[in-house]
């Protein structure tokens, strides 16, 4: 039960952070990505803050044998760049650039009742499904 309570708490804090920083506003994100036009660099501070939290989190994982509510850390052992990784990163970037949403803010935007977010999240799951089919085929 405590695991679910902490997961809910972490999700709410994450969603609030995305909303306060305006990462759930696709126009704000697209302005950040438009470096050749009307560029808005303010989201760079959000990314620096996120990087600081990630670095602290990775340091914490190196100092502990397992997470508080889990049996092990789920960290990839993969260290090479391959075609599936590069293709996925490319598709992610294209989708982000076209819509102004990445997965976290898209899910957070569902709580705001944003219709575009519903389409985006549905598309994310369609992509998961298609990727699964491709992995089985190849």
Shape: globular
N-to-C terminal Cα separation, in Å? 40 Å
How many domains? The number is 1
Q: How many beta-strand segments?
A: 0
Largest sheet entry: none
How much is the average pLDDT?
A: 90
Order of helices and strands: HHHHHH
Helix percent band: 55-70%
Q: How much is the radius of gyration in Å?
A: 17 Å
Task: Describe the protein's architecture and organization.
By secondary structure, this protein is mainly alpha-helical. It has one domain. 70% of the residues lie in helices and 0% in strands. The chain is built from 6 helices and no strands. Helix 5 crosses helix 6. The chain is globular. 10% of the residues are buried.
Please tag this protein with its features.
globular, 6 helices, mainly alpha
Present the secondary structure layout.
Layout: H1 2-20, H2 26-33, H3 43-63, H4 83-99, H5 103-110, H6 115-137
Helix pairs in contact: 1-5, 5-6
């Amino acid at each position: 039960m405590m695991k679910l309570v902490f997961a809910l708490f972490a999700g709410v804090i994450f969603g609030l952070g995305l909303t306060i920083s305006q990462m759930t506003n696709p126009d704000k994100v697209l302005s950040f990505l438009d470096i050749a036009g009307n560029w808005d660099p303010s989201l760079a501070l959000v990314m620096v803050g996120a990087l600081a939290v990630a670095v602290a989190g990775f340091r914490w994982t190196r100092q502990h044998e397992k997470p508080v509510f889990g049996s092990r850390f789920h960290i990839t052992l993969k260290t090479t760049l391959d075609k599936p990784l590069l293709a996925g990163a490319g598709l992610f970037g294209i989708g982000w650039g076209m819509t102004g949403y990445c997965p976290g803010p898209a899910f957070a935007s569902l709580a705001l009742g944003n219709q575009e977010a519903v389409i985006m999240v549905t598309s994310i799951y369609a992509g998961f499904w298609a990727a699964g089919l491709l992995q089985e085929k190849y």
